[in-house]
Amino acid sequence: VQLQASGGGLVQAGGSLRLSCVASGSIESMNYMGWYRQAPGKQRELVARINRAGSTNHADSVKGRFTISRDNAKNTVYPQMNTLKPEDSAVYYCNARQTSSSEGYWGQGTEVTVSS
Predict the structure, then answer these.
(1) DSSP designation for 100
(2) How does strand 17-18 pair with strand 20-24?
(3) Does an H or E element contain 10, and which?
(4) What is the DSSP string of 42-81?
(5) Cβ neighbours, 10 Å, residue 19
(6) pLDDT tens digits for 49-82?
(7) Whose CA is closest to 50, among 80, 86, 90?
């Protein structure tokens, strides 16, 4: 499984960004796709996750601001990130996994920087 992430960049606080992650390879069994982030000096944390049926899970810190969606036909997952805050600055990683508890596969990170 290969994951290609894109869409990061520099944005002012209050602005928006949309990341995308395209999955390829043996993805038939990848029931969950999602995004995690890691800020300097902090552990990697879940941002949002979506399963093949469309059920989503968003971290409390992004609820109401971020929305994850999935296009199964394009094997792509999109987190729409609105009302960005400086504390959202991090390297964002795409992930695909078979079960909610498996490690799965990781894409390369894409950096998001939110200026105050």
Answers:
(1) T
(2) unpaired
(3) strand 9-12
(4) S--EEEEEEETT--EEE-TTTTTTEEEEEETTTTEEEEEE
(5) 22
(6) 999 889 999 999 999 999 999 988 888 999 999 9
(7) 80
